[in-house]
Amino acid sequence: MAYSDDLRQKVLRAVDTHQASQARLAEIFGVSLSWVKGIVRRRRETGNPHALPHRGGRRPKLSAAQCDALQQYLAAHDDFLLRELQQWLQRRYHLALSLSSLSRLLSARNWPRKKNRCTPPNAIL
Fold this sequence. Notes:
mainly alpha; elongated
């Protein structure tokens, strides 16, 4: 959890003025002792106690070109099964994606997920 810079400054001022031990300050401010020690250490080592920026998360396994090829494959094969799509990706790009990852990928791009248009929608919403 990223705490605000205002809270960081308050905690560091309290540490600098020796108002209480780091453990007691952690209790007072409602944070963990390791968090207090971490911001004190980061300020000491780098001079900057601010939170580190978000690093973007995990990289996607499929490149933009692979996504385009996948979309073309889906347009040509509108009655696919996820397992067939999984095997196609394995053969063509040597990518091992789980069925749930494929399902999330299709959902995120609003690509069709049903085997064919005759399949009734799920009864469970």
